[in-house]
Write a structure and sequence with these properties.
Layout (H helix, E strand, L loop, with lengths): L2 E5 L2 E7 L6 E9 L2 E10 L4 H4 L5 H21 L6 E5 L4 E5 L9 H15 L4
Parallel strand pairs: 4-5
Antiparallel strand pairs: 1-2, 2-3, 3-4, 5-6
């Protein structure tokens, strides 16, 4: 599933990571065809039932997408174009600046993974 929408002068492409057993929803923000940043919503397995008892990813997206769009708009309004993830945990949520994330993986690895997901899975160009 891929959708495209606009906010101010920015184009936002979004979609679930296809075929993933974990919830990963990606937003790629671009300005005039030039990518500005990626935002991601990650829901850990232990938290999925908070959003949908049947753990249906599409139902979760349908029920939460407006809230996530507001998060994206707030970031754009603040000119915050850092690559970020909004991670929902078993209890609570936290926002992660991916450039500061050093646990378990390197930034090059993360950027490569996010890039691969966005460009190949979502067919973004």
């Amino acid at each position: 599933m891929q959708k495209t929408w606009s906010y101010k002068n920015y184009e936002i492409k979004e979609g679930l990571k296809p075929g993933s057993s974990q919830f990963r929803y990606f937003f790629a923000v671009s300005d005039g065809g030039v990518k500005k940043c990626n935002y991601c919503v990650w829901i850990v397995d232990e938290a999925i039932s908070r959003f949908d008892q049947s753990k249906d990813f599409n139902s979760i997206v349908s029920s939460q997408i407006e809230t996530w769009h507001e998060w994206i708009k707030e970031k754009i309004d603040a000119a915050d174009f850092n690559n970020r993830a909004l991670k929902f945990e078993k209890i609570g949520k936290k926002e992660i600046d991916l450039s500061e994330m050093t646990e378990h993986v390197t930034m090059d690895y993360l950027v490569g993974k996010i890039g691969n997901i966005l460009y190949s899975s979502l067919n973004l160009r």
